[in-house]
Amino acid sequence: MSNKEKKINNKNEKKKKKKSGILKKVLIILLLILIALVGFIAYRTQKNGGGMQGLLSTLVGHDENTLKDLDTLQVLLMGVSTDNGLKLTDTIIVASYDPKTQKASLLSIPRDTFVGTNIKTGGGNDKINSLYQRGGAQKTIDAINEITGLDLKYYMVIDNQALIKLVDVIGGVEFEVPYVPGGMVYDDPSQDLHINLEPGLQTLNGDQAEQLLRFRKNNNNQTYPEEYGGDDYGRMRTQREFIMATAKQTIQAKNVFKIGEIIDLVYEYVDTNLSISLIKDYVPYAVNVNVDEIKSAYLPGESVGPPQGIQYWFFQVDEDETEELVQELYYSTDDTTSGEGETSTGTDSSTGTTGTETDDNTSSSDDETTSSSVTKTEASKIKIEILNGSGSSSKLSEVKKALTNKGYKVTKTNTTTSTTKTTIINKTDVDEKIEQDIKGILGVGNISSSTATSSNVDITIIIGKDYK
Dihedral sign, CA of 133, 329, 424, 318? Predict the structure, then answer.
């Protein structure tokens, strides 16, 4: 190799080393920037509460003070069906969410709620589910604000297809289909509606979800049993529980990469006056909601119709009970009086009590007896569901408190159709002394047994008007 060639090679080597040195410096600088960025995000994430909430809050530009300025969000949810060519809001729910306390509630409004002036001469247009097609979402909001005393401003009108398609996007929803005497079997060729669902825990696809949500009565004119909720109460309960199950399964990590499809569904099937910026403010905190602890309720009242000299069947609101329920749901800080609140947890999170708490909140032995034969240790193993058929939310609160003070776990509360007699239903063949102990606590109650609708409880209590 000549000297000239050696010089050229040396020059090229120096250039390569120089370029390599520059590249290393650039990579080091980029690495330092990346470390600083990750460190900053991690710091901001921690300042914003940590976890998924903190990360989402950081990504949308929140700081630790954002949460302090957020008020409770209340939205009217309306599910619109197009049966017989009419746009009827057959699902009407007031949803409330407090990001500071992570408390949330769902208040069902019966579709037949009377909103006219004279119930004896009222017609189909005097039912609340007809207001949307005649005056839009705002007309429905105004009616509900008048009934409840709330100040709702926001709405979401959801085409039934939205929930059905969402179910398919997330790969189905696991749900326990409730038992109906004679089965959930219904056919209406005029609507091309065919329902055929087996009871029990199963994964429902979109088509099955539609069948579930539209079911009212079967071909034999049988509906939900009283011990589940009865008639429209049962239908509203199923709607709320399915919405909660869908929400719970949608926010699972496996669906993160499906967020684009979910957003597309919202744009296509949801009409709302909620701004994107407002939604963005609440989303980071909503991921922490425990769906199993969402309170649920029905608007208090009773069905009235032709037998009472009224032309149509309506749901007539009980104004006093509604005022009391609204106070308990939205303004009370005492969870032991949560009205028709419903939870599905293994502990009594709805009451905040434990199996060892007494009336004066002092600790007592687990083996203290609730009566002459049942200890609190035994009582704490019994899960109870209370269905209120008395028409009084205060009676529900009294029963709930009496049972939890004796150590029993009240894991669910709901409303059922009005009933005269209080009934204690043994669902899992618990000992007779438990039945008698509960009857002694209530002071009334016919004892029966049934395994038709387990609801994952041992005892279902239906409070009747005879409970004092």
Answer: negative
| Distance between CA atoms of residues 464 and 468, nearest Å | 9
Write out the E strands in 299-399.
301-304, 314-317, 383-388
How many CB atoms neighbour CB 161 within 10 A?
15
| pLDDT reading at 307 higher than 60 | yes
CB distance 438 to 424 below 8 Å: yes
Higher pLDDT, 281 or 371: 281
Q: Which two tokens stand for residue 308?
A: 């009472």
The DSSP symbol for 127 reads: B
> What's the DSSP call for residue 69?
G
Tell me the CB-side half-sphere exposure of residue 190, using CA atoms within 13 A. 4
CB 159 within 8 A of CB 80: yes
Strand, coil or helix: 114: strand
Instruction: Compute the distance between CA of residue 331 and CA of residue 74 in angstroms, rounded to an integer.
Output: 13
List pLDDT tens digits, range 142-201.
Answer: 999 999 999 999 999 988 788 889 999 999 999 999 999 888 999 998 888 899 999 999
Biggest alpha carbon distance in the chain? 118
Superfamily for the 71-329 domain: LCP protein (3.40.630.190)
Tell me the fold of 334-463: Alpha-Beta Plaits (3.30.70)
Helix ranges restricted to H, 159-308: 160-169, 206-214, 231-250, 259-269, 276-286
The residue extents of the domains of the chain are: 3-47, 71-329, 334-463
> Contact at 8 Å (CB) between 367 and 396?
no
Helices (H), 292-431: 319-326, 376-379, 393-405
